[in-house]
Design goal:
By secondary structure, the chain is α+β, with helices and mostly antiparallel strands. It has one domain (37-150): Ribonuclease H-like superfamily/Ribonuclease H (Nucleotidyltransferase, domain 5), CATH 3.30.420. Helices cover 32% and strands 16% of the residues. It has five helices and four strands; from the N terminus they run H-H-E-E-E-H-E-H-H. The chain has helices spanning 2-11, 13-18, 83-98, 115-122, 143-150, and strands spanning 41-47, 59-65, 71-76, 103-106. It has a four-stranded mixed sheet with strand order 3-2-1-4, covered by helices on one side. Strand 2 and strand 3 (71-76) form a beta hairpin.
Length: 151
């Protein structure tokens, strides 16, 4: 009976099309490396625009520590979301609490382009070459924040 089922599954086109791949995934998983030091690898994302709060905030900036998925979030106004303002928020929320991140992964938002330059300016450091890492996907840890803010 086992051979009959195995033969049927192998010869069925629907079964072959629906079967998930068991081979190795192509490409390198950028989130697979474990940091050697704590709180050095963060991801950053802007959520919004949201309905305005009483204080006028309509965006949420989230930083997610990639190892433990610790979420740090701050609400800001959309008009106050320049690279300079985001660098100041990152400095206040992450650098002052956990130290300067070695890696800050973010999506390809225009406001993130000069974030590192502004962050180095806040530290009074001249950095001639800055490596930016970008990803093009939503950060799954932000989904609960998005859902809660819609209630």
């Amino acid at each position: 009976m086992f051979r009959d089922v195995a033969h049927f599954v192998r010869s069925c086109r629907t079964c072959a099309a629906a079967k998930s791949s068991t081979g190795l995934r192509l490409g390198v998983d950028s989130f697979s490396s474990v940091p050697l030091q704590p709180f050095t690898h963060w991801s950053m994302h802007l959520i919004g625009p949201m309905p305005k709060s009483r204080s006028g905030n309509d965006l949420i900036v989230t930083w997610v520590y990639r190892t433990s998925k610790l979420i740090v979030a701050k609400a800001i106004r959309q008009g106050n979301s320049s690279a300079k303002a985001l660098a100041e928020l990152t400095f206040e929320a992450i650098c002052c609490r956990f130290g300067l991140p070695a890696s800050l992964t973010h999506d390809n938002d225009v406001r993130f382009r000069s974030l590192w330059k502004e962050l180095w300016r806040l530290l009074n450091t001249n950095r001639s070459r800055v490596h930016l890492r970008t990803i093009h996907r939503r950060i799954p840890q932000n989904r609960p924040i998005s859902k809660c803010s819609r209630l």
